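Weekly structure sync, notes
Attendees: PL (lead), two postdocs, one rotation student
Agenda item 3: pending single-chain targets
PL asked that the sequence for the first pending target be pasted directly into the notes so everyone works from the same version. It is reproduced below exactly as submitted, 367 residues in total.
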Amino acid sequence: MKDMFGQHQSVIYALGILLLLSLWLASGYLASDSREPEAADTATRSIVQKVRVRVPGKQRIVEEVVLNGRTEPARAVTIRAEVEGRVAALQVKHGASVAAGDVIVRIDSRDRQARLSEAAALLKQRELEYTGSKRLSQQNLQSEINLAQAASQLETSRAQVAAIKLEIRNTEVSAPFPGYLDRLPIEVGSYLKVGDEIGRLLELDPVIFVGYVSQHERNRLVLGDKGIARFVTGGVAEGKLRYIAAEADPVTRTFKVELEIPNPGGTLVSGLTAELRIPVRYVSAFVLSPALLALDDSDVLGVKAVNSDDRVEFLPVEVIKTTPEGLWIRGLPEGMRVITVGQGFVRSGDKVVAIDESEVDTDNPGG
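Predicted structure, written out during the meeting:
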């Protein structure tokens, strides 16, 4: 055994040294590997992101209720025949403007004048009969029953005369109010029955803008408020609120509103689409680019800003209105530095280096 150990002593020593060396190297590698993530994490935390900031100026603006809708006539009526007969004459054409009382259509009176003359003669007879019966009754020569019968016949004759006169008046169909004769689907010679359509009349001065608002917006409106309507045709008109519904639409849960717009020249017609803006109050607000707004994890709209400790804060805001200059918002504390460049690389609570936009060389944006 000793001879064998003596023969292989050098080999055993070499293997032992090799084993010890391997263990030493392995321990050094493991220690190094375990320290790398910690060192990397420490290095990452030590990097402070640079961002550009701007303090937006507060301005006083008009807050508006904005809604979309369309124009309607102030009044609209379908004119119908009240007597039967043939159209004898059309006094106006469809598309014409008419004043209140203007005759639109004349219907043939047929035998109505002859019937009126007959009824008038009968009425005169009934008046004489009633006068005679009354005189005889006063002399106790005729009963009260006969007097009452004569009085009844007299009233019947009067009613007949009045009815025929009304028929004759109704053969001339007149405009009940000033307006625009939008439809006239009859011609001379057309035969009309009672209730048949003669035409449709629209009152277009004023015109009415009709739209719908939410419950919150309704509570901010007052009858008589002025509004500006901007039409898709490019026109602009001013009017005032004449109606605010007290009951919501059962489907949309919105409230109908009407704006009365003067239209003396008749340039506005029914059915025009428009955007209506109604100023409701003055508020202080900031204007920002839409690109600066973001959503937090709860889908709340806001902006990222830098507080006095140079840490990022997410601040919820409310958009008041949109203009070509940008979005007007409120809810932002005055003097807060809003991040304008780099907001996508930082989160709430991050420490940052805030660089004011005024200090950045505009000719070298990357500097």
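Discussion points:
- The first strand starts at residue 49 and ends at 54.
- The domain at 65-71+203-281 is CATH 2.40.30.170 (Elongation Factor Tu (Ef-tu); domain 3).
Action: rotation student to compare against the earlier draft before next sync.
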